[in-house]
């Protein structure tokens, strides 16, 4: 296919070819190919070999008069006005093609300070590469690794990621390092499944469950504490990506955020889609658009006294439970016991997370939740806590504190099952839990994979870029797991034994 636009002539030739991985390339990446090859014959705008080349929209013929040579000055739609318009804009944009040599001292811009973005920055440093992490958080880093502290008591809640498991060796090394620094510890409290009516069944103690020693957010804030090549900028909403003079120029509502040899998108949802809609990265934008996310409500509630223990759990008061058979509740956990231990005499702080179905049914703009919606969600979820515990109606003690929060783009429900995505022509990549699953471990592994992949690309000097294309054409499959995410090794005794046999034989 030949596309001619102004002075730009590009030939896009789909062809199958065997992926030739560099010698030091992670073998897990070798099966993921770019299905098309872009051969740029002449480019007035996006071929970054010219120092005077600046992106612009070439003039087009007026569609109402094919013989007219007047440029079509139709006003483009506003930035991300709708999913449909953003989708059309994403797929029709022209591919950026950086063809110049790679800098001897490259720097990477990472947009998103969740687990995957932080680990990507950490592992880039291990390879001697500088980076800047841009994060929107007002209170700290971590994305969905959220911990909220309410003064003056204080009340403490992990209100997003609740705990995580470890099955991968490389991730295990990282967790051991965090454990040695006192950032994480094993959660020995009883965790199980709570069926509607109060029947509780404990889960096996293997694999170990880990939590942030002082909550999930302090763990996230500490990951980059001893790095020297990583800069963190927050709060910052990167709103524009512009390729110019062989570099990516980032800005926040017109304010310059710096220029970078490569960029990493380490967040998702509508903000990421809008950012990519006019970036010149249609292949990456297409993959991001295929991602589907759930919505989850979090209800934080503090009680003066301990909650009543279900009849089936009298011998072991539980600290966390996956809730079954209840419309609005999928998880509940006692943060006070989990984080402060059984010796704490303060209020009992519980986190209740909704089902994905309830989140979808009650989804509203999370930036401006109507008071009536917040009240309805709170009352419904508290009533279902009674139902889950097998209590009589209206017998649950009145909380001394409540707050609801909607995670509008909570967890992935489909995945391309690839460690990372990288477009070598545009020198841009994506990392995130959704690429491998829906867990903290998946997020960390994705960040590691992309950091090593980008490092190998830089080390190659940017030569033979097609060999570094990964994840640009992978199809998505439905993702299974709990409504609050995946916990590898925890689902059943069969999966636990399988994980053990894999580790022993590796």
TrEMBL record:
Specify the superkingdom: Eukaryota
Q: What Pfam families would the database entry show? A: NAD_binding_8
Extract the ranges annotated as region (Disordered): 50-88
* Stretches with biased composition (Polar residues): 79-88
- From the record, what ranges are coiled-coil? none
Q: What is this protein called?
A: FAD/NAD(P)-binding oxidoreductase family protein
Organism field: Cinchona calisaya
